[in-house]
Each structure stands twice: as structure tokens, then as C-alpha cells.
Hints:
The chain is an alpha/beta fold.
Amino acid sequence: MKKLPPSEFAKLSEKTRLVLAGRDPTDSYGFVNTPIVRGSTVVYPNTDDFMVRKARYSYGTQGNPTIDALLAAIDTMEGGAGSVVVPSGLMACTLPLLANLEAGDHLLVTDSVYRPTRSFCDKILPRYGVEVTYYDPAIGGDIASLFKPNTKVVWTEAPGSQTFEMQDIPAIVAACHARDILVMMDNTWATPLFFRAHDFGVDISVQAGTKYFGGHSDVLIGTISARTPELYKRLRETWETIGVIIAPEDAFLTLRGIRTMKLRLAEQMPAGIEMARWLAARPEVARVMHPALPDDPGHAIWKRDFTGASSLFAIELKPVSMKAVGAMLDGLTLFGIGASWGGYESLVLPFDCASYRTATRPSHAGPTIRFHIGLEDLADLKADLEAGFARLRAAA
Length: 396
Ligand SMILES: Cc1ncc(COP(=O)(O)O)c(C=O)c1O
């Protein structure tokens, strides 16, 4: 194995680049993986070098070889000008907003945004003089009607958290770029493997790497990729100045997850679609929210822009009591009841987004439930749910 020059590396297929990115055995004593480098202090050979910080790494908060190995893998997937990694997916949402907004600016945020990102926009940004407006995720190019002279950033997330509305990203980007407004996207659901956000003009692409990148529910991490060198410079400067370094073990685990992410998603995408179809045919289910299903309102956009789907989706049950929902979910043996997703295991959670949405009112007659499909056998998962539906009917 020989390290390829960047121009040769770039010509390889994505599948091969995900195996090679960020490792050079000649630089790691011959071992396959870039090792975990722990450290705060970097020592210099002499005073002159220290005075000008003449070294590949200058101090632990400015990065280290394990983190750089992860960044190489992120850059090859995202295709941006550069990226940074932070200790959670939530911080991957908040840091680019901090980096690019200032007092007096106006921010537009999709009403379907991940709820903790919304809390940041509601609780922290106004303290720094930033005005926030929520918009209908289906707005498309009409986003321009909400622009103010001080609008600086439009935040997108597609499909949206919990309710899975698709967004017309190309139309939003066109409207924003005509006015020098930045477009940021939480692209965790599709991952850069199924939606290369920068190729569609998105300026800042965010991943909760906690999900499919890590893939094993054992790491919290966020990644932020910038489309242009200027945006990357600002992002990196903010990252260094704030001091949000991640533990090298987390970088190592995330990189290890990335090596097999394509394989996991190749298994989980059809499993998620098959489970969504199976649920859609159940008499207890009123509606399935999954953009890869042909009758989903976001299907045309999904088909046009995305090359795949992850295994997270939601359903609306026909009207039934929460007690019955509890009876269904509490007795499941394979599905865990819990937040987060993107790991190898199946998860389920009840949710109600009607209480906090402000620009749109999702109309659910019955309770809503989110599913994440893992790597278990689908027949086993269906049997688990089949028994759950029997409990639901019995408790109704
Ligand atoms: C869409 C989305 N973005 C961001 C996050 C935040 O990731 P983390 O849990 O790593 O903070 C989540 C977590 O569930 C999420 O679902």
C-alpha cells in the first residue's frame, strides 16, 4: 500500500476512498489504522521554532493526527473546502451559526428543525442580538418572500426531524445565493453518501456523526463541512478560538464507523423502506412518513435530489390512547425505546411535535411514533411489532 498524491486519490471511487482516507501505514509504524494520539502539549526542538510555532501540530486544542485522519474521511465524503469536528451533533448545528451570525442579523430556520437546534435559536441567539424566524419546510423558492435586508443565513434540514418533510434545497439555494445569504443544512438523515449537499450549493453541511458515521451508538460527535475556503477559514478560526476539541478516542471510533458506513446503509436503507411499506399496510396505521415511499408528499424531491435513504422514518397511528401506545411499545423485545438513531440496533420512540412548532401545524389525529431500523433480521422485527400491535388493540 502506498499513499497516493491527492490528484490520484480523488480519481478513485467513493467506496475505495472510504477505505483509504486518513491513513498512511508508513506514518503509523506499519499499523493499518492511524493511532489514537492523546496530548495537550507539543514540544519543540528549540526556542526559535517555539516562538513561531514551527511544527505540524502546535497544541492539543488545535488538532492532532487522529482528528486529521477523521477530517480526511469527512472531506472526501462531503467534497467541501474543509471541515471541523465537534463533541456532538448538536454543536455541529450551533457552531456554524455562531461562526457566521452577529448582532443585528436575521436567521430563517425550518419549522421541522431538530428540536435542540431550535432551543439554541430561541434561547441563545436572541441574547446576542440575532432575530430568528421559522418557516414552512415546504416553502421552496418562496423563501425569498421572507428575506429581510438583514437576513444572513437560512437553516435547512431535509427530511425534517420527526415529521420527515423534504425541502427543495436547489430552489432555496438559488433564492439565497441571489442575495448572498448562506444556506446551512443538517444533512444527518441522508449522510453525504446519499446527498452531497455542497454539490447542490449548500454552504455549510452538518452531520450528527453520532448517527450513521459512528454507527454503533457508542460515540457522540458532530462534523461541519464548509463549501468554500473563505467559509472554512471562518469555521476553523471559530473552532480554534472557542476551543471545542474532541477526544481522540471519539475521532478513532467515528473513523472506524465510517469505514463500514456504506455497507451498513446498503443493508439499512432497504430494511427501512420494507418496514415502512409493511407498516403502511397495517390496519392500525393512518400514515407513514418516509420520503422514499412513492405516495409520500416529499417523494418527487427525494427522487430528484437524493441517491438513497437511511432507515429512520415515522408513522401516525389511527386515533388511539397513549395508554395503548405504551402497551405496544413497552412490551417490545427487540426495539429499544430511546432517542438517537443511526446505530446497528432498532429503536422506537413516541413523539408529539405539535406543541413546539410555530410556522406550521402538523395535523395528527392519532399518536405519532418514530422508528429506526437496525441490522436485525426483518422477520424478527416484524414479529416483535406484530405482537406490539396485538397489545395496542387489546389496550385500545
Ligand atoms: C437531525 C439531528 N441533528 C442533530 C442531532 C444531534 O446529534 P447529537 O445527539 O450528537 O447531539 C440529532 C440527534 O438526534 C438529530 O436527530
